[in-house]
Amino acid sequence: MKEQPREVVLPAARRDRGLALEKALSERRSAREFTAAALRLTDIAQLLWAAQGVTAPDGCRTAPSAGALYPLEALLVAIRVEELLSGTYRYDGATHRLVRTSGEDCSAELARAAYGQTWLRDAGVIVVLTGIEGRTRRKYGERGVRYVHMEAGHAAQNILLQAVSLGLGAAVVGAFDDEQVRTVLALDAAERPLYLIPVGWPR
Fold it and tell me: What digits encode the pLDDT tens for the residues 141-183?
């Protein structure tokens, strides 16, 4: 693979295809066993757009946000993705692109931070949802922390349903050491990890 630029423009997200919502809801199950097949860049584009993609000229996103303050960030730990180097990327929903923050595969370190859940390393990617609670607390005070957590649930469910629509398997992981995950991903102190979401081709 030739040298990849630090910023990767993702394929445009599809908005008019896929399973009926009712079918995706009925077929959604947590998957923790994956094949070794790589994910496609088009799959990554859909998953991240489902999580935090922009859907309107005014900046509205796929998941509702209290006060339209958008405290969530979506990071991608790429393990096996066609046309994408392994490493950690931050998703920029406004431009629908990835910005590489590290060229290291940190999936083993994340598995250790998740109390030894080694199956995380078998996924094609791990989507990490984080929250910058200060963005919402400035308007809503301490109540804003609850709103951030609610918003993370909205975004995570979007990812899970999008995965089903693509024929992929996924699961949400909330059992992890916050400080270890923050260290592995080099997160700022103001950015709190909320979800690890491994995604891959189900076995």
Answer: 999 999 999 999 999 999 999 999 999 999 999 999 999 999 9
Say if residues 132 and 144 touch (Cβ distance below 8 Å): no
Decide if pLDDT at 196 tops 60.
Answer: yes
Q: What's the start-to-end Cα distance of the chain, in Å?
A: 27
Q: How far apart are CA 36 and CA 2, in angstroms?
A: 22
pLDDT tens digits for range 105-130: 999 999 999 999 999 999 999 999 99
The pTM of this model reads 0.94
Helix (H) or strand (E) holding 164: helix 143-165
Domain residue ranges of the chain, discontinuous segments joined by +: 32-95+133-186
Q: Are 48 and 74 in contact (CB under 8 A)?
A: yes
Which CATH fold would you assign to the domain 32-95+133-186?
NADH Oxidase (3.40.109)
**Edge-first strand listing for the sheet containing 169-170:** 7-9, 97-102, 87-92, 72-78, 125-131, 192-200, 169-170
Q: What is the largest CA-CA distance in the chain?
A: 48
